[in-house]
Amino acid sequence: MKVRKAVILAAGFGTRVLPATKSMPKEMLTIVDKPAIQYIVEEVSKAGIKDILIVISRGKTVVEDHFDRSPDLERQLLASKKDDSYNEVVKIPQLARIQFVRQQEMKGTGDAVMAARSFVGDEPFVVLYGDDVIIGDDPATAQVCRAYEEYGKGSVAIKEVSTELVMKYSSLKVQLKKDNVYDVSDMIEKPKPEQIFSNFAILGRCVLPPSIFDILEKLPAGANGEYQLTDAMKQLAVTEGMTGVDFTGVRYDMGNKLGILKAIVEVGLKHPEIGEGFREYLKEITSAL
What we know:
This protein has helices at about 35-45, 60-65, 70-80, 85-90, 110-115, 115-120, 140-150, 165, 210-215, 230-240, 255-270, 275-285, and strands at about 5-10, 30, 35, 50-55, 95-100, 125-130, 130-135, 155-160, 170-180, 180-190, 200-210, 240-245, 250-255. The protein is of the alpha/beta class. The strands form three sheets. Strands 5-4-1-6-11-8-12-10-9 form a nine-stranded mixed sheet. It has a two-stranded antiparallel sheet with strand order 2-3.
């Protein structure tokens, strides 16, 4: 079955990048000249998915505003003959059909996904984390969707990471299937060293069957009373199996200060407007290090 819907989780506090996120959602932190969440929506759109639900929380209406029309600004840009800026602004709400829902309480990623149940209905859907930007020629969303459509199982975007990061993310029990595709038979959220299956972790993208909602509905609360999507996917992996895709593309953790800086530098170097000047600036300052 073709994947036609996407759910972007954008309700978190962003505590790792305070104080910037005290009044600004982490999803709106910019990489050069676009907020992180726009890169994610563009990725979904490039993958051919046009129906998107963004799960937000109190204080994040600026995310809704960003994907809405701004007629006054548009008229001003046209009057000032700033055609390039006008084109950039008007294309944002045209990327996809975007809806929003609020997660009433911060009760984990599983609870956030449950807020999307009526939007999803009885279809498979892709889940994206609002602070994980992945940039590449082949959208990571498209890669996991192709795996789901080929094998008929839930699929996750995976990468081998350091043991330190595995203990912060998740660990997957995997077996190579072919090329960059793996069978996933178990997983654990934030494992202790003795619980690590492998150094493969889920990074920001997964395609799930609608049956995930029945699992989430019965899922017991975990640490801090939260319901984690990984715990539900573990049940899916054990009972039905899942597919892991060692995706192509560069991933930036926008919930991490160093990740934000890396994204700005690497994207900035390729930016058609400022890339050349930025490169010269970096050469100048790095010569003194």
